[in-house]
Design goal:
The protein has 4 domains: 2-68, no CATH class; 72-189, no CATH class; 202-404, de novo design (two linked rop proteins); 412-521, no CATH class. It is mainly α and 523 residues long. The longest helix has 34 residues, at 331-364. The chain is built from 24 helices and no strands. GO terms for molecular function: oxidoreductase activity; quinone binding. It comes from Pontibacter actiniarum. Residues 219-347 form the Vitamin K epoxide reductase domain. It holds the Pfam family VKOR.
Length: 523
């Protein structure tokens, strides 16, 4: 009874404990009302009530849309206020005072005067757009206005990178307001007009033993993205010239050398600040959607996965290539790679569930274009009864953490392969081999790639990928003998390590979860 008075029922807390935020809240409340009205009539009546909630009329959905709009009206006023803030920013802060020059004498594509002018005009135009379309959003059923505001927020996050903002105040203001605008348009109120087409139903994919879109599963991604965001922002601030020193606790001046290297200067924008933008979007997208988003928002799961998986591999490759291209290590760069690497296997299960739903929808004859953009009807009715409530984290952090890594197991063979790969990365320093030699390059690159494959394949849906470490291990074992600048001791160590990695890549290891249609590929 007390829970009902507080407005929080058990149903709201399923799927990880954050309840049904934003666009799903009115629909969740309606389901709760159905449940409360039918619970005395038996299970059959309950199922009928649920089916009815899934087949709502357009008139009912429109009424819910207006109700939801009234509940979140403050959001659209906030967009107008932030727009006014951005219009006034160039007049409040002098973007041409105490200007910063990019680090390392980097040449950029704009002159100082152009950088100042472009930042001012960008803020003025962005602010005006927020005021105009934010005002339009005060009227219900105007999703395009909200999406335009969202893209303005993305642009505000990008503009200081594109224009090499000479003012740290402008950089901070734009990136902060940009993140707030994105949150206010598609996170807090939910996806624009999603009430009009969202299909209620199952939370756990058919045949799966857990829900890869539950809040505990997304919580760990959000935390890792935030850590990467902060580290990348610090390095970006150095490259943009806002700070004079790049701190490194282990490699002395190496971080400065890496951030000012030719490899870094080859990018038209600050590569560290670009990484900060990617982590910002990953952080925000972690909050998007309900615990059923693998089914209701396939497009969002795909875009989020593109940010995490292929772009994550590119980012990691750039980091591990630093000893080869620059001849130096960067502690914060390694930290961002260490943050990004576990995000890859942690995200692979959700995109697999989304892919399974698309395959099943195609077999059923659904329009895949509509399913991709608007979600699909469920194939069964279930609730996520297994995922713990995220609100339990302060009292039961271990339980929530374990739920956050479902789908990722740690077989001893892969753990040992990871340890060997890390050892290979730093073995040249132990044996006093110069970092710029080919012998060192083999260890650095080979060890890093072994770590990437081993950790990625801790994700059970891609466990078969562990076989990639067989040729990698053999290459590490054999190749050094054809290089003249190594040492006998290091060559022997690498031969033993490489052969061990190849052997350790053969056993599959434990599989702890079920993956529906994908089970046959978990080998």
């Amino acid at each position: 009874m007390e829970e009902k008075q507080n407005g929080h029922s058990d149903h709201e807390m399923k799927g990880g404990g954050m309840g049904k935020r934003g666009v799903t809240r009115p629909m969740a409340q309606m389901q709760m009302q159905h449940h409360e009205g039918m619970e005395d009539d038996g299970e059959q009546q309950h199922e009928k009530g649920r089916d009815h909630s899934m087949m709502m009329s357009d008139e009912m959905r429109e009424k819910m849309l207006h109700t939801h709009h009234m509940q979140t009206l403050w959001v659209y006023w906030a967009l107008v206020i932030l727009g006014i803030w951005m219009v006034l920013a160039p007049f409040t802060f002098d973007y041409g005072r105490a200007v910063a020059e990019p680090s390392g004498g980097r040449e950029v594509w704009l002159s100082l005067e152009q950088r100042i002018a472009f930042m001012k005009w960008s803020d003025l135009i962005s602010g005006a757009l927020l005021v105009f379309f934010g005002w339009r959003s005060l009227t219900p059923n105007r999703p395009y206005s909200l999406w335009i505001c969202c893209f303005v927020g993305i642009w505000l996050s990008m503009a200081p990178l594109v224009f090499w903002s000479p003012s740290e105040v402008a950089y901070l203001n734009d990136t902060l307001i940009g993140a707030l605008v994105i949150a206010l348009t598609v996170l807090i109120p939910g996806m624009p007009n999603m009430i009009m087409y969202m299909k209620m139903g199952s939370e756990t994919p058919p045949g799966w033993s857990y829900n890869p879109s539950s809040w505990p599963q997304r919580w760990i991604m959000i935390v890792l993205a935030f850590v990467g965001w902060m580290a990348s922002r610090y390095m970006g601030a150095f490259q943009l010239g806002y700070i004079d020193h790049a701190w490194d606790p282990f490699f002395g001046n190496s971080t400065r050398e890496v951030l000012n290297s030719d490899m870094s200067h080859a990018w038209p924008v600050s590569d560290a600040a670009l990484g900060s933008l990617a982590y910002t979007l990953e952080f925000l997208m972690g909050f998007m959607g309900s615990p059923s988003r693998w089914r209701t928002m396939p497009w969002m799961v795909l875009f989020f996965s593109i940010l995490v998986i292929p772009l994550g591999f590119v980012s990691i490759f750039l980091v591990i290539s630093q000893p080869l291209a620059v001849g130096a290590w960067c502690t914060l760069c390694l930290a961002t790679a260490a943050v990004m690497l576990p995000m890859i296997p942690l995200q692979l299960d959700e995109v697999t569930a989304m892919g399974q739903h698309m395959v099943q929808a195609k077999r059923r004859g659904d329009n895949l274009w509509n399913v991709f953009w608007k979600g699909g009807k469920p194939f069964e009715q279930n609730k996520d009864e297994r995922s713990p409530e995220l609100v339990e984290f302060p009292q039961k952090p271990g339980k929530v953490f374990i739920a956050s890594v479902w789908g990722m197991s740690f077989p001893w063979a892969l753990v040992l392969s990871t340890a060997i790969g890390l050892w290979l990365m730093f073995a040249p320093a132990v044996f006093d081999v110069n970092i710029e030699t080919r012998a060192a390059d083999i260890s650095h690159m080979g060890g890093a790639l072994i770590v990437v494959v081993a950790v990625t394949c801790m994700g059970e849906v891609v466990r078969a990928g562990r076989y990639l470490n067989v040729p990698l291990g053999l290459a590490v074992a054999v190749w050094p003998w054809f290089v003249e600048d190594g040492t006998l001791a290091l060559n022997i160590i690498r031969a033993v390590s490489g052969l061990a990695v190849a052997a350790l890549s053969l056993p599959r290891g434990i599989i702890t979860e079920k993956y529906g249609l994908w089970d046959k590929y978990v080998k």
